Amino acid sequence: MSEEYRYKRVLLKLSGEALAGDVGYGIDPKVVDDLADQIADIVRDGVQLAVVVGGGNIFRGLAGSAEGMDRAQADYIGMLATVMNSLALQDAFERHGIFSRVQSAINMQEVSEPYIRRRAIRHMEKGRVVILAAGTGNPYFTTDTTAALRACELDVDVLMKATKVDGVYDSDPKKNPDAKRYDSISYMDVLSQGLNVMDSTATSLCMDNNVPMIVFDLTVNGNISRALKGENVGTTVE
């Protein structure tokens, strides 16, 4: 384990949209390849990594229910979308020489292992990236909540939330040019100010279990490594 890394075991939360790149939907092979490249570097340096990926680039449960679809059914479709993203990530990791395992909260034995906490931890200890698919396996829970839950279960040192903005702002920086970025902020302030960092269930779960979070811009190459080394990348929430 390289001494320069501040965090030894990490959970990385990726939105489905992050995998779509500029296209806005589907999976952009170049984006996935760049991501695998960054992750390969930190895994080779000894960082233990789990990844939770969303499915919004393929299907978003909330959007489906807004169009009149049954919410639970829409959420299940969204969970299946995350499995597709997870398999794409696994393929990219392994092309970069990184061993990985997809663990799904919905049983799909032909393409993934079931999610078993102790097995996931063992994989991480052996230097394999664990890709956590299908959310929690329950409707009404977002992949943000999945990330918070798994971060607690897997006893990680930090939850990294990858976004397209460089941290947490007091208002939407796209709408307000005077929006102020926080270097650090408490979970309680995030909740009381209604800042949309993660949904309130996920935020409360991290707060109650003392899991720190770094919100950072994934589109800047090398940011994952810089954040893990303790550089001032993004916003720390704790």
Automatic annotation (TrEMBL):
Name of protein: Uridylate kinase
Reaction(s) catalysed (UniProt annotation): UMP + ATP = UDP + ADP
Binding site for ATP: K13, L14, S15, G16, G56, R60, T163, Y169, D172
Organism: Paraeggerthella hongkongensis
Superkingdom of origin: Bacteria
Gene Ontology MF terms in the entry: ATP binding; UMP kinase activity
GO annotation terms (biological process): 'de novo' CTP biosynthetic process; UDP biosynthetic process
Family label: Belongs to the UMP kinase family.
Keyword Kinase: yes
InterPro entries: AceGlu_kinase-like_sf (IPR036393), Asp/Glu/Uridylate_kinase (IPR001048), Uridylate_kinase (IPR011817), Uridylate_kinase_bac (IPR015963)
Residue numbers spanned by region Involved in allosteric activation by GTP: 21-26
Pathway it works in: Pyrimidine metabolism; CTP biosynthesis via de novo pathway; UDP from UMP (UMPK route): step 1/1
